[in-house]
Amino acid sequence: MGVRSTPVVKRRAVVKCQTTNRSQNSNLAHVSSADCLTDPCDGPLVSNLMPSSFRSSSELSSSHAPGFAKLNRRDGAGGWSPLVSDRHQWLEVDLGERTKITAVATQGRYGSSDWLSSYLLMFSDTGHNWRQYRQEESIGFFPGNSNADSVVQYKLQQPAVARFLRLLPLDWNPSGRIGLRLETYGCPYTSDVASFHGGSSLVYRPSPSPRRTSKDVFTLKFKTLRNSGTVLQAEGREGLSLSLELERGKLLLLLREDGASSSEPRRLASLGSLLDDQHWHNVALERRSSHLNLTVDKHTERVQIPAEFSHWDIEQGNVTFSCAEPLSVAVTFTGPQSFLQLPGTTTSSSSAGVSIGFQFRTWDKAGLLLTFDLPQHGGVVWLYLSQARLRLQIHKAGKALLELSAGAALNDGQWHAVELNSKRGRLTVTVDKEEGGSAQASPAFPVAVKNHLFFGGKILHGCPAEDNHPDCRNPFSAFQGCMRLLTVDNHSMDLIKVQQKQLGNFSNLQIDMCGIIDRCSPSRCEHGGRCSQSWTVFHCNCSDSGYNGATCHSSVYEQSCEAYKHNGNTSGHFYIDVDGSGPIRPQLVYCNMTEKTWMVIQHNNTELTKVRPSPSMPHLLLHFGYSSKEEQLQAAISQSEHCEQQLSYHCRKSRLLNTPEGSPFSWWLGGPGPGRVQTYWGGAQPGSQQCACGLQGDCVDLQHYCNCDADRAEWTEDSGLLIHKESLPVRALVLGDIKRPGSEAAYRVGPLRCHGDKNFWNAAFFDKETSYLHFPTFHGELSADISFLFKTTAPSGVFLENLGIRDFIRIELSSSTQVIFSFDVGNGPLEVRVESSVPLNDNRWHRVRAERNVKEATLRLDDLPVATQEAPADGHFHLQLNSQLFIGGTASRQKGFRGCIRSLQLNGVTLDLEERAKITPGVRPGCPGHCSSYGSLCQNQGRCTERENGFHCDCSLSAFSGVFCQSEVSASFKSGTSVRYTFKEVYEVSRNSSALPSSIYSDATLRGENVSLSFRTSQSPALLLYVSSYYREYLALLINKHDKLEVRYKLDSGREAEVLRSRARSLANGQLHTVSIRRRSDSVSVQVRRRQNAARHVHAWSLMSIHSDDMDPDLARLGSLGFTGCLSVVHFNTISPLKAALLHPDSGPVSISGPLVQSSCGSAASANPYAAENTHHLSGETKQRQPVVNAIRTDSALIGGVIAVVIFVMVTGLAITARFLYRRKDTYRNQEVKGVKQDDSPDFTFNTQADSQNLPTENPKEYFI
Predict the structure, then answer these.
(1) Which of 321, 512, 773, 1259 has the fewest C-beta atoms under 10 angstroms from its C-beta?
(2) What angle do CA 230, 231, 234 make, to 5 degrees?
(3) pTM
């Protein structure tokens, strides 16, 4: 292995010890005795130091000097106190050499009221370039003391290695002042150091006798000010090489071929960020067989490496160099109050021009970098960031005299060099020299500094906060970031003198450190969310990821087709996310919402395909690629209650499985991964080497167990369902007996179909407040999402609780209208509440979804608005739990929950409540009763019926069909079509009326009717519906020649018909219209509307009968014209004759003549989408509002008594055509039909205007009877 001979990085590197098990025969890059110590590293480090090892920002007096700040000592005034108590003070300790620091302890000043309540901790190797220690990469402060005498000690989560330690007070006793005694704990730290200056290298040569190992570990530390360069390169066999390279402050693991640096490398991993901060960073490479673990600081990524790197041979040796630390003092602008004031010139003349240089790094797109006043004629210069570009403006009296712009994407966290020069009337602004760009101008006025330079800040310096002078208005946001290498007139500015108040002035700065943090490394955005950041926060862009939330944690999709169904969705393609917030990505499936909810996953060939053998291969191998990935398939199969796949083989002299004793000619592969060999066929049992006919005993040749094994010259087939989930899906087919003369075959592998969601219905019933279920500890350190459904009649109770030493998480029903999500991750308890306007203890299912991540906590209840609680900006974010997880109760067994909990999922994993409930007293598995929650999904008079797992919409009494009785049953008609629906023959009724079924009997004893239908036609006149009884009472619904709607009732054969007509015309306009007729006794209400969303108007009428002895001849002649158009959802009381004719054409009451074409012509989508709803009003042609006296006979077949024969007549529609009625009038009791006076029926002239060209007939189904 070797390091490239021309590294670019100027850095120091240390190779340190990694302890390993000797039995693993591992190679180590280098051994350092200090790192291999096994003794505890917790010795005191400060107590024996000399007073000269202590420094401070100031001291109150000589007796309050920093040298007295030793734990439990009473020397001097009993500790250190600064001259002024503010946040600019600090205490520094020089440990004399680089030391491993594991803990820190603080104490107040002895016998006083002076102590710290919180502080920051800084470390450094040189006494400069300080680095703030952070817990959990977020917590910047340490809690301090509450009195002057007690000792508060904190063990560092990650030991720090440094020579210098600095403590910065944040808060102190408000009744006292800053007072401190401290101690740190740890042990000496030594290491071998090498310095690289850009043209040097360190090479390790393989030993002559390489040792083969299964594990290699190579560790090092490095620090650098450069953001690019090669850190390490390992040469492998066959011209391959691995290299660790810095690129823009990130460490990349690259694979190169042929050892040529010019070839484009393949990136294997990228870790770390801001690694050019001149602080030590840990790097570890651990090879385990063909995998490599790359660790940078605390973050690890696992990658697969080529076999050429199956072992590394490292020669161990000692290399020690000494090197000087480069001094670079940075300053951090933390907020709007941060500014740095420096003298504006180092020359005697302020009008000679200006030359200013500095470097900055930030994540913000905008911020004021520099401002200064011009010496002549007034005016101010602003140098600022806007949209991540560097801009310069010169303003005077509110007007921009000059604008320049340079650079782009300067908010990338990298150091960018800025130079501002004005000489000889030429103004130049340059960013990153040649790499960035520059802008120039020749202003008509000199650009120089009047007196001071101001870096950063929100309020312009020299201006009162309330001043409205144009030059005092600052339209820019404050700069938050770091600066270094500040120069004025090519003289470096000593920022240490600034800190010591010997140069310039400042406020709210962190001097001698750059406090930049990369909140996107590692990214907290999950599932491919894209991370972006400002100086204070990060943001996740979740678009196109399929997830949402502050960290893209929660899936936007349901976990199964079953869940979509219970949201009210009908059949279609849906994305399902089988593990919710887990790592498996969403997949697109087809959900077939029938009585069972089927999930259908397609593959690349589901059609019946003829076998085409390959001449060179004895077997034909056929692979099937699925639309879902492997992990998606297995998760979908696992959570389903039942899965199946059709497997068919059509054969002619092509044997399939042969005999149980012999080797099969063909087989298939199924199951996880590439699949296992399966030697049974569809419909048989695994391992049986049989087909379905062999299992059933009905093969064409009983000597064989498959039809195809009979080897006959006639076509036959072996087909069946594969239903064992362990063998699904089918991955490949291997077909053998296909090359003999005369052999022919075809195969079909259907799509994978599954139904049932074991997770969705997994439920438990808690019948006591003291009953609960317990599970292992919930691990949701950084992201936790919890979702479940509940129903209860109790007003309160705890759904879930998990405790830690201090941390906890809990979800509870606090009252009948409120759910609370509470937790503590170390920052104190937080609560998120959702209030409902309706009671939640209504014994209906309610859905709860809670999520907690490093940015926020959210709580959702049903479809109510989401409640959100933001996380503290600088707080703990690891949730640390250690007790059992309690469901339905608490650890104290108080405030338990009474009711049902269902589909409980934690971070996408479903807890099996039912299995645990089976062995837990007071808890029962399952929870019946779903119609109270989901019954409203059943539409159009569909009835909800309970199932053990779920519900079913019974559409038998509805004119609609579909999973929710939502699909209109429609048919397109031609003039030759007729449908008859007969209830009972007259002789059967008269012979034994008690034998009628209850459903028929209820319809036969009518006191009124509910009739509804939808129609679409361009024909007028047209008869839409005709209902008659054995005694010649009838109801007719028609469109007259004026395109008006008429309803004719005849309730007494001795009276003439009652006629109701619409005022509006244009009902035969090809649009979809809906008619509803409701009669109760002597009152009729009729509603007509066009199928759009608008208000409905209903009018009620009293009926008057007009004597008529037989069928109206006008209706008979109108029926003989036939009907062309669409009829949909025809309903008469509880009977749906059109639905019966289309879906059950062979049933007893239905008879069909001519082609009956099922279509979607009655759906709302088929209507004109631009047409507004028209609500028409009907007016009667006879006297209104008069009671019907003696109009209804007590033995009337339609109204009272028993129906003899009821025939629906829809010419090409409901019963028997009017043409048939007209031609067969002699079947009625009176052979001669009395005519209706022309005055009574003036609208019929029997002209037909049928036009069916505009009637949609999507996917028609024709019935010919």
Answers:
(1) 1259
(2) 90
(3) 0.78
